[in-house]
Design goal:
Elements lengths: L3 H15 L10 E2 L8 E3 L1 H9 L3 H11 L6 E7 L3 E6 L1 H13 L13 E5 L14 H16 L3 E5 L7 H13 L22 H17 L1 H16 L2 H24 L17 H10 L4 E3 L2 E4 L13 E4 L7 H15 L4 E7 L3 H13 L8 E7 L2 E2 L16 H19 L7 H21 L7 E2 L2 H4 L7 H20 L15 H11 L1 H10 L3 H21 L8 H25 L8
Length: about 600
């Protein structure tokens, strides 16, 4: 289906042409004065100079040609030359009927569906997820879902930090604590234990201990660097121990991401490309892309048009060690060889923009990607506390994501049992509902902000059932479900008239909000902007609630009219549920 605004513009363009003016002047926009009109066209103002004519005269000529239009109920020329437009209710009703019948409410399929890899998450193994991991997971998951809904093939990759010095630190600390383990015995030839010699809780304590010790004890740090080298060189015991670290960590990560309703198709990490690095480095040297600078191997990526200094992209340090740049470039190379995507999207902290500029330019210069492969950086801002500083625990530490979600679940449940008397047998169900509402509060609270901006994480506001919040959206959906259930329970023969022409302003306002779905969903993908989905459903929820308070739906005696209301409610519910699904949360059946 065509976007509603495109159909309206086509009608207005035809009127300009019929009046003897350039049809391109007929582009229509949503009115910035909804008290005066629903849509507006300023083409007469733009055409005045070309046609040596007062704008109001052009506007009147065009308005005359709109008489009898099936699209507009009124077209008014007002000084100094604006065209104020109101939609014909029958035309609007027919447009929504078309949306009802179409797959995805008429959202057009892309001419050329893209194959996309989206790199988001990026946690380090052996470390618990903390609040700093929230935005990458939530924003990345939503962009992935929006892209899929728009008809593209999308592969989500978590890209684990599972290689490098942190692994050496863990192995070194384990060796100090449990030197008797066979993993450290170079003469051991048997089967290594299948059970990990630590729990996730122990592992999460081992890393910070080792990290802190390495900063104070140079000899300890040397041992960790040697352990890292042995691991990366393929020493069997170290590799076997590393496999346990990965298995225990990934199992815990999956549980935490599942609680966030975040899913990855690939659980690859830096280690997956370690063995590909030597060949890539050799290729860059052989082709003349890389050169030595102060002992390090670098690729120059600055361009003549740069207004600020873009340093070279370092491939190897002076001691021959690889860096994040190296593994990221090797990962791009592997993705191109194995997946051959049209686009790779990185959802990362916006402070890393310079780094990704270097990596993307290096990938292009060294021909690791095709000339038409899109490399996209989506940078997000910081999640701050009410003091405007990065979100911390009351003790001043970085809060574990698991604890944050648990706290909000508890707050949500407390709100529910305070406001409603819940019988003992329903308390488990209430806890499940509280968890769904809490997740909506957290995700909507994050996604309703433009990704690149910092925002205040305000639990009180996010968990409110009023205002621009996730719980308000869920409450609206549950209200619609309740009305539909009550209608289904009415003992009378139901009519199926479908959506009708609106009679009142509140009904028309709701219908116009629904009609904007296609345009919004396309824009949300083109701009990779989940906040556009949030803004849309907030407006839609407000439009529905206004209609609900103005209209006696279940008490309506005209059965044909009532059936039209019910059809409108069904479409509203389906569109709201589609939108919250691409945001990564769902609505309960009741609240």
């Amino acid at each position: 289906m065509k976007k509603l605004l495109d159909l309206i513009s086509e009608e207005m363009m035809g009127a300009f042409e019929a009046a003897g003016y350039d049809r391109e002047l007929g582009k229509v926009t949503v009115s910035n004065r909804p008290d005066l009109c629903e849509y507006q066209c300023n083409g007469a103002m733009a055409g005045a100079k070309t046609y040596h004519k007062a704008p109001i005269m052009i506007a009147k000529d065009v308005a005359e040609k709109c008489e009898g239009s099936e699209v507009f109920s009124s077209v008014e020329a007002v000084n100094p030359g604006f065209l104020n437009l109101r939609l014909n209710g029958k035309f609007l009703g027919n447009y929504l009927k078309g949306m009802e019948k179409e797959d995805k409410f008429g959202l057009p399929k892309p001419e050329k569906p893209l194959k996309i890899v989206i790199d988001y998450g990026g946690p380090n193994v052996a470390k618990p997820l903390h609040v700093g991991h929230l935005r990458s997971a939530v924003i990345g998951e939503s962009i992935k879902r929006i892209a899929r809904y728009n008809g593209h093939e999308v592969i989500g990759d978590i890209h684990l930090g599972d290689w490098g010095l942190q692994m050496g630190l863990i192995i070194t600390e384990l060796k100090e604590r449990k030197p008797e383990l066979p993993f450290f015995d170079e003469s051991f030839t048997g089967e290594y234990p299948k059970e990990a010699p630590f729990t996730i809780s122990e592992l999460e304590e081992i890393y910070p201990t080792a990290s802190a010790r390495s900063k104070e004890d140079e000899a300890y740090k040397e041992k960790a660097m040697e352990a890292t080298f042995k691991l990366q060189s393929g020493v069997k015991g170290y590799r076997a121990l590393w496999n346990h670290i990965i298995a225990v960590s990934v199992s815990d990560l999956k549980k935490n991401y599942e609680n966030l309703n975040v899913e990855f198709d690939l659980w690859k990490g830096e280690s997956d490309v370690h063995d590909l690095i030597p060949d890539m480095v050799e290729y860059m040297k052989r082709e003349g892309y890389a050169h030595e600078s102060e002992g390090a191997l670098v690729v120059d990526v600055k361009e003549e048009t740069d207004t600020k200094e873009i340093p070279p992209c370092m491939i190897l340090k002076s001691d021959g060690a690889s860096l994040y740049n190296t593994t990221d470039l090797a990962t791009i190379r592997e993705r191109m060889e194995k997946i051959n995507p049209d686009q790779i999207i990185y959802v990362v902290d916006k402070r890393q923009e310079l780094y990704f500029t270097q990596v993307f330019r290096c990938a292009r210069k060294t021909k690791l990607v095709k000339h038409d492969t899109l490399l996209t950086f989506v940078g997000f801002g910081t999640m701050n506390g009410k003091d405007g500083k990065p979100f911390k625990t009351r003790q001043g530490g970085v809060m574990r994501l698991e604890n944050l979600l648990s706290d909000i679940n508890e707050q949500m449940y407390t709100k529910m049992i305070t406001n409603h008397e819940i019988p003992e047998e329903s308390k488990e169900e209430a806890k499940g509902i509280a968890a769904m509402v809490a997740l909506a509060a957290v995700k909507y609270g994050d996604l309703s902000n433009q990704a690149s901006k910092d925002y205040i994480f305000d639990v009180e506001r996010f968990t409110s059932f009023e205002g621009d919040t996730g719980p308000y959206i869920l409450y609206t959906i549950v209200r619609i479900k309740s009305i539909l259930n009550k209608y289904d329970a009415l003992e009378k023969e139901k009519q199926d008239t479908g959506i009708r022409e609106p009679e009142g302003e509140a009904e028309k306002e709701l219908m116009m909000s629904l009609a904007g779905f296609i345009s919004m969903m396309q824009t949300a993908w083109e701009e990779m902007a989940p906040h556009k989905v949030c803004a849309y459903i907030y407006d839609l929820a407000n439009a529905f609630n206004h209609f609900y308070h103005e209209t006696k739906i279940l008490q309506e005696e005209d059965e044909e009219k009532q059936a039209g209301y019910i059809a409108l409610l069904k479409l509203t519910k389906e569109i709201l549920e589609t939108c919250i699904d691409v945001l990564g949360f769902a609505a309960p059946e009741r609240m």
